[in-house]
């Protein structure tokens, strides 16, 4: 069975929409987790972040609110290109932050999912692995769709 060009375009558009909604759900979940963590009494909240120099508490507020705002934009406004750019920018910031964090010698798992380790009784290293996998999906997916858009918007020099 051959698919028509129109059906292929429709399938690709649906895949992109699913990716955007999954990304928004991931960002909403991680953002809310960070904000909920602020209500706890963990010692980590008072420690200073070695990259920014500010307390982790303020860093969690900034990151959590930013993630929730991006998720809300994707769900309620829905401009796909802007949504992809926002996901790409946010995931790039997270990748660079994680790399810089590792370069400082910090070996503890990332607290990027808030206190989900306590809520679901999952080890911090498993939660860290899950957050890395989600980050890879956000980073690779957003950039692949943006590159696809870029190359499709360029005129094809072989068909002139």
Can you characterise this structure?
- The chain is mostly helical.
- The protein has one domain.
- It contains five helices and no strands.
- It has helices at 5-37, 56-76, 80-103, 116-120, 124-153.
- Helix 1 (5-37) packs across helix 3 and helix 3 packs across helix 5.
- It is elongated and about 60 Å long.
- The model has no long low-confidence stretch (mean pLDDT 82).
Q: What is the number of E strands? A: 0
Taking pLDDT < 50 over at least 5 consecutive residues as the criterion, the unreliable ranges are none
Q: N- to C-terminal separation?
A: 30 Å
Rg estimate, integer Å: 19 Å
Structural class: mainly alpha
**Average pLDDT metric:** 82
Report the total helices: 5
Q: State the domain count.
A: 1
Beta-strand percent range: under 5%
| Spatial shape | elongated
Helix content: over 70%
Q: Largest sheet, described in full? A: none
Spell out the helices and strands N to C: HHHHH
What's the helix and strand layout?
Blueprint: H1 5-37, H2 56-76, H3 80-103, H4 116-120, H5 124-153
Helix pairs in contact: 1-2, 1-3, 1-5, 2-3, 3-5
List keywords for this structure.
single chain; 160 residues; mainly alpha; 5 helices; 0% strand
């Amino acid at each position: 069975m051959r698919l028509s060009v129109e059906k292929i375009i429709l399938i690709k558009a649906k895949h992109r929409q699913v990716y955007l909604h999954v990304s928004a759900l991931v960002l909403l979940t991680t953002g809310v987790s960070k904000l909920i963590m602020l209500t706890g009494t963990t010692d980590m909240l008072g420690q200073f972040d070695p990259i920014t120099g500010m307390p982790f508490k303020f860093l969690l507020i900034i990151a959590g609110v930013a993630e929730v705002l991006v998720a809300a934009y994707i769900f309620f406004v829905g401009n796909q290109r802007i949504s992809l750019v926002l996901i790409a920018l946010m995931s790039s910031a997270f990748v660079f932050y994680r790399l810089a964090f590792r370069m400082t010698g910090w070996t503890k798992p990332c607290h990027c999912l808030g206190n989900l380790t306590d809520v679901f009784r999952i080890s911090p290293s498993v939660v860290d692995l899950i957050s890395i996998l989600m980050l890879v999906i956000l980073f690779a997916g957003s950039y692949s769709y943006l590159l696809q858009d870029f190359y499709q918007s360029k005129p094809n020099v072989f068909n002139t």
